Amino acid sequence: MSLITIQNVTRLFDDPKRKSAVKALDNVSVEVGRNEFLCLLGPSGCGKSTLLNLIAGFDHPTEGVVTVGGQVVTAPGADRGVVFQQPTLMPWLTVWENVAFHLTMQGVGKDIRRKKAQHFIEMVNLKGFENHFPSELSGGMNQRVGIARALLMNPEVILMDEPFGALDEQTKMEMHGELVRIWRESQSTIVFVTHGIDESLSLGTHVAVMSARPGRIREMIKIDLPRPRDPTSPQFNDTKRHILSLLRPEPATVEA
Amino acid sequence: MAQISTTLPVSPALPLSVPLWKRIYRRIERAIVPVLLLVGWEIFSRSGVLPPALLPAPSQVLVAWADWVFATDGNTQTYSGHWIFDVAASATRVFAGFAISTLLGVGIGMAIGWSRTVERLIEPVLQVLRPVPPVSWIPLAIIWFGIADKPAIFLVFLGSFFPILLSTIHGVKTCDRNLLRAGAMTGGTPGKLLRYIVFPAALPSIFSGLRIAVGSAWMLTVTAEMVAVKSGVGYVLWDSYYFLRYDIVIAAMVSIGLLGYLSDLAIKLIAGRVLRWQRGSTLQAKEG
Q: Nearest CA to CA, how far is B171 from chain A (Å)?
């Protein structure tokens, strides 16, 4: 049985300026199995972040149902850890307090929080920065704190919304390697939103290619390339070529 | 509401290579204008343009003040050596009123900022009360509370409540929505989100409100003491005016200024500790 099911989900947004509803998602169905790493790939405005927000519970479908672990999603919860586009850390808390924020919400004592946080701080290679404030760290380091915070909740699913979008190419590649390692170590299930073809191919076990206006899944591609993935290998490029052809706008639906 | 500097301006120590005169200048920089003002005032008072009784020279004020504080020569008569008691009386009123308005201002401000319903229910009343000058409450305060500490505390409360309330509302309303999303993601209930996210996020704004409020608190204590109370620095000021002791009047004025400055300094120091996470991310930190 799949861990996340998205059944015939449609999401309309009211647009008072155009006096008509915008179809962000149109009858989308996706299933994600346990331990899978699904990348939602598509151009801006294809509804990939909307889909992620539906799974996270920040937003609700106009039609259709989203379930995680058999439960219908109605609100955000600690079973789904979210890593945001911006690190979204509490600026008044140190790194370890941010990582253990979930435990603060549970009313767990300081000593246990500190101890639990340490494990995940080491997992994202931030040892030595436990007592720094977010303003004292770089963007990449802050994003790692965000990942550690999501991991500590030991969620069934980790949802990531273009978490490395603001990072330079080199840092991004480094983070990809670490994310794959963390995903394996923590045995988690990840849904990862991106608009980078290379990024989705280096990370995912599956790539869902989406099209825009209305947002639909064009194709669900299973990626069987060996890890660590070589972005210059022929198989990698074959898949990339295929995805590029999918993303090329069809002449009939081109909008001005 | 404008962000007020919460760190003390400390001049960085200059290296030895800097010329001596420049280092000396750095040392005395802050004192130059006050000293010039005092010297000018002294010269003007002694010049005889005004009768010395109407504008006492700083030296004369100092003599009166010294006796008021240390009972040096008894020139302030009943007030001789009584300064610390007058200051304590005023400070207690300021502290009591300020504490009440901090509790209520932050509490009600959080409720108004967080809940639309509370905002719609309470805000109109508060916005009508706000423009009423606290001083105009004096007649009612005297009728209700008599002549003692209470009317002064009431006035201090009225004067410091609104700056704290408004800055708290502002702080809550400008809390980053994404932080609340992150909080909801970690499984926070509304009560926990308020305590662990909204309140700390609003603290910088709350502290700037507290600093504005402590100024009004001193103003209103002194006003109340002139009219409705028989003790405190404000009472001494008004009483000395009746006895034509303008040197004591000025000594009282300077005392109030000094106390206000010290209270502000105390809040600034607390803010600097509580908001130490802002260091390195704001303008004021860079210049410090």
A: 14
Q: What is the total count of domains within chain A? A: 1
Q: Do B135 and B159 meet the contact criterion of CB atoms below 8 Å apart?
A: no
CATH number of the domain to which A203 belongs: 3.40.50.300
- Domains for chain B: give ranges and CATH numbers: 83-287 (1.10.3720.10)
When pLDDT is averaged across residues A32-56 and rounded to a whole number, the result is 91
Q: Looking at the complex, does the CB of residue B195 fall below 8 Å from at least one CB of chain A?
A: no
**Which tokens sit at A176?**
């990809």
pTM of the model: 0.82
Q: How far is CA A68 from the centre of its chain?
A: 15
User: Is the minimum CB–CB distance between B174 and chain A shorter than 8 Å?
Assistant: no
Contact across the interface for B179 and A80, Cβ inside 8 Å = no
- Asked if A90 lies within 8 A of B192 by C-beta distance, the reply is no
Please report the number of interchain residue pairs, chain A to chain B, with beta-carbon separation below 8 angstroms: 73
pLDDT in tens, B228-264: 888 999 999 999 999 889 999 999 999 999 999 999 9
Query: Could you tell me the end-to-end alpha-carbon distance of chain A, in angstroms, rounded to an integer?
Result: 43
| Model ipTM value | 0.81
Domain membership flag for residue A92: no
- Please tell me which of the candidates A78, A88, A105 has its beta carbon nearest to residue B178: A88
Distance CA A134, CA B244 (A): 60
Q: Determine whether the interchain pair B278/A135 forms a contact, defined as Cβ–Cβ distance below 8 Å.
A: yes
Chain B: residue nearest A83 by CA?
Answer: B182
Q: Got the DSSP string for A99-144?
A: HTHHHHHHT--HHHHHHHHHHHHHHTT-TT-TT--GGGS-HHHHHH
